[in-house]
Amino acid sequence: MIKNLIAAAVQWAPEVLDLERGLLRARDAMAEAASNGAQIAVFPETWLLGYPYWASISVRDPRFTEARRRLQQLALTRDGEAMRSLQKAAADAGIAVVMGLHERDGGSIYNVAAYISADGQLLNLHRKLMPTNTERLVWGQGDGSDMQSVEMSGAKVNGLICFEHQMTLARNALAIKGVQVHAALWPGHAFINGVIDASTRHIAHENGCFVVSAREVMSIDRLGKHLPDFSDEPERWYGNGGSAIIAPNGSYLVEPVFDEETILYHELDFARIDDANWLFDGVGHYSRPDVFQLRWDESPKTPRA
Q1: 128 DSSP 8-state letter
Q2: How far apart are CA 299 and CA 305, in angstroms?
Q3: How far apart are CA 172 and CA 101, in angstroms?
Q4: Which helix (H) or strand (E) holds 160?
């Protein structure tokens, strides 16, 4: 059984709706994290191609249509060349990766966390269960089939995307699957700083695991010239970071870092998981299955048999 693991949270700005540059930047981040000893790196929500800050403008705005069309053209597929490129980058660096990206399946796009092993195997693609608010104009819904733990660099790893952390039963589902490292993928919105602080520290304690919380920094000056003109509303594109690494007792191992591009690191001592579970084991001595039980449909839901 693994005793420790060096984890990294990548807080770099994305290459918005630029797949070629985004893949190169992902490769560089993996290589840098690995060169600093990291064995697993977590990236922010839909970091590859960028979080759709544009989704909350009117659908009648031509900028919405332009961004939406470009995203549909560029979104990754499970067995496509871009996904294979990500897998190769992880293998070349020798680092396990949880990457936030957009996946296209038919005519629909999904918000996905891709779990890639240090030897480049695609272990799981978890689709966000419920897009939040105007995100529903961009992404479809996931199902219960990919709420799994996978072994990455010797550790049991799973995670949630953004407001999935507010879904009580989703948190419990991941605890049932067993977890040592929880990947928390978020955008850079400053207005949810307090929510993220509460959510990530709570799930660390509730599920008795380490949490690697990855967020991005973003600003309008980082947008490429291939995108529509958003100069009239620079605040739309502001992301202040806030990535962090949290211990199983809910305390910060690396406090949130704001307003700078960086990669956060910490060596996780898995003995702290046993210490946390001795006090509170949510799927063990503190579970009370005679009172509460989770009914969970893990079958995939697809219209294409």
Answers
A1: P
A2: 13
A3: 24
A4: strand 155-161
Tokens of 57: 């403008």
Task: Please say whether the beta carbons of 21 and 7 come within 8 A.
Answer: no
Phi/psi at 215 (5° precision):
-135, 165
Torsion angles phi and psi, residue 74, rounded to 5: -100, -20
Which of 165, 92, 93 lies closest to 129, judged by CA? 165
- Residues composing the chain: 305
Tens-digit pLDDT profile for residues 26-56: 999 999 999 999 999 999 999 999 999 999 9
The rounded mean pLDDT for the chain is 96
Q: Which residues are catalytic?
A: 45, 128, 162
Domain residue ranges in the chain? 4-279
Inter-residue contact 65 to 138 (CB < 8 Å):
no
Residue of 301, 188, 177 whose CA lies nearest to 243 = 188
Distance between CA atoms of residues 164 and 138, nearest Å? 17
The CATH topology of domain 4-279 is Nitrilase/N-carbamoyl-D-aminoacid amidohydrolase (3.60.110)
Distance, in Å, from the CA atom of 53 to the CA atom of 44, rounded to the nearest integer, reads: 14
Specify the pTM: 0.97
Element spanning 27, H or E: helix 19-35
DSSP character at residue 141: -
Q: What percent of the chain has pLDDT over 90?
A: 96
